[in-house]
Each structure stands twice: as structure tokens, then as C-alpha cells.
């Protein structure tokens, strides 16, 4: 089981002690129970639900109402893991709008932390939220909400300029009050450098094994995606149950066995 009352401070202590953090997406009560039974420290209600639950081509159509609904489903049965909810596309264009969205996700949905995508452009909104007691998780690298702008789901930060920008954004977000950071689809060497340089825990997805923790979309890691990203491993393959698969993921993260080179980028 997840330890009772995991907080942002708990995750910081895990980073400082060199203990890996496991995070799995969840959108409903049933999966939440299984994930917590497996011992994951973080539950992420991701706007990825637009693709894996709703069958859409991207995360962009997901609404705040839908995020509140799914977050509430998870919150009803959550026991101890930290509950993080994505702020959907165009729901934090201004600091005031960000406050409104975060307020709904926390007050109506039961989220304990909100996550938004982007660096410099989001600093004002981040400062507004954190100054009012809202725990914020950042998201850099591949930004699914910007997929049309960047021309697809591509590894970010391979060029020197891009890598420097991601590093600068990580420090800027931390200075603005962000307490956790997700790095998606960046070279493992860049992710390692960022995780060592910042104080906040860094959770990787397609970012190599040296991040402070790892996150996967639950449907991907259970082999339910016919075209999974390269950074995904099917943890259900060769195992007798979903519970065993989730436990295997958590243990593999804790032991530093996942991701391996085949699930990482150079």
C-alpha cells in the first residue's frame, strides 16, 4: 500500500534520500485502488484521458469540467498517494484563469496539486497560484498540449539551444514556486543534469532512468495501446493480473530497472 498521507514534502525527502518515486495515471475509482495497492506514491489524473478514455486524437479537447469529474472519482477512494490533476488546454491563459481552474480542481475535484505545461510563458500564473497556497507541478520537454505547434510527438532538447531553454525553464519554474517537475521525451543526459541541478523532484516519462521518479499512462503500461510510445513497457505481459503488473512497475522504478536504454532517448 502507499504510505499514508504522501505530500510534496514526502516526495522531496524521497529525492534527498535517493529513493525513487513512482507515479501512474488514474481516471477512476477501480484503477485508483489497484494503483495504491501497488504502492505508487503519486496518482496523476492526466488530460491524457482525452485520448485513452474518450478516444480523441489529442488532449486538447478535454475540458475543466471533465478533469474535475475524473479527479473527483479518484479522490473518493484515494487513501494516501498524492493526487495531482492536469490543468487542461487553454484553462490557464491568465493568472486569474489559472487560479479559477486550480480552485475547481482542488475544491470540487479533490486534487492536492495541479500540473501545467510550459516554462517562461506560465511563470506569472505559477507565481499567482503558489502565492495563494496552490501546490504546482510543472511539465517541460514534449508538451502534448502544444503538439500541433511543435509538429508532432517528438523528442525535445536534443539541440544545444533547446536543451538550454529547457534547463532555464526548469530553474525559472522552481524559482516561481513549482514543487515538482515532469520531464517528457528529452534525452536522458539532459534529464539527469536537470534532476541533479534542481531541488524539486523530477519525474520522467521517456527521460531516462536518472530522474527522481517515473510516470506512465496506465493504459499504455498494461499493453492496451496498439501503438505505444517507445518509452513505454508492457508490464502486463507475462504476468497474471493487472495488480501484478502495477506492482511490477512500482518495483522496477524503485530498483532503478525502469526505464532501460530501450525506453530512453539519446
From TrEMBL:
Catalyzes the reversible reaction in which hydroxymethyl group from 5,10-methylenetetrahydrofolate is transferred onto alpha-ketoisovalerate to form ketopantoate. The active site is at residue 184. GO terms for biological process: methylation; pantothenate biosynthetic process. PANTHER family: 3-METHYL-2-OXOBUTANOATE HYDROXYMETHYLTRANSFERASE. 3-methyl-2-oxobutanoate binds at residues 47-48, 86, 115. Mg(2+) binds at residues 47, 86, 117. It comes from endosymbiont of Escarpia spicata. GO terms for cellular component: cytoplasm. The gene is panB. One of its GO terms (molecular function) is 3-methyl-2-oxobutanoate hydroxymethyltransferase activity. The keyword Metal-binding applies. This is 3-methyl-2-oxobutanoate hydroxymethyltransferase.
